[in-house]
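Entry 14. Structure prediction run on the chain below.
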Amino acid sequence: MHKKILSFLLLGLFLTGCVPAVSTSTMTSEVVTPTISITETATQPMSTATPIPTATITPSPTPDLGLVGLPTEEKGTQVFDFVEKMCEAQWSNRGLELPCPGNGTQSSAGYVMQLDGKAQGLPSNMNILLAYTPQEKYETISGKYPAFTVQKGDRFRTVLACKEHTFCDVDFVLNFSNEKGSAGLTNWQHIFTDKPLVVDYPLDAIAGQTVQFTLAVRTRGNPVEAYAVWIAPHIYRPVQ
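Output returned:
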């Protein structure tokens, strides 16, 4: 019995000695650290900012005066624009000096202002002068402009009308003054039932003189409706 037990013990020791030792290196996972190529990142294209386009301003074209019935004019032949110089004029109702531009709150005294062309069914850049006569005494509004030297061939051009959707009955007046005093040139009657009146008036009678022109409107009918417009009032000078 003891011999059998001893035999089993010896067999176990033999088998244990036959099992190979396990290397610790085979039980450790190898960690591989990736390398970054510097040359790869250096060859990537660099981003560039997209330039912002520069805005360009296009000037408004000169209005076509043929739309209102005035003759065709070459560039540079308008030598005096009564709308552009509107607030260089002295406006009054013969009893009171008026501000420029005016507005509708001054209706009892009368007022003058520039009107957008669209209000008359015309291009927005069409120069229009609106004169509204005073509602009380002195039913005339007038503006005396800076001095201007008239040359032979100069012509006063404009189109006269009532403001759209109003019922004016007025006189449009063109006067002038110089060192000798004031004088009337001409006037035009207009009522809302008339077609717009095209004016192409020669100024040869005062050629060579330095004068101050006066534009005036006086009411003949109901002053409440006396909205009078001068469309593109200017002095035309032919090419010399």
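Residues 1-47, 55-59 have pLDDT under 50 and may be disordered.
Filed with the rest of this week's runs.
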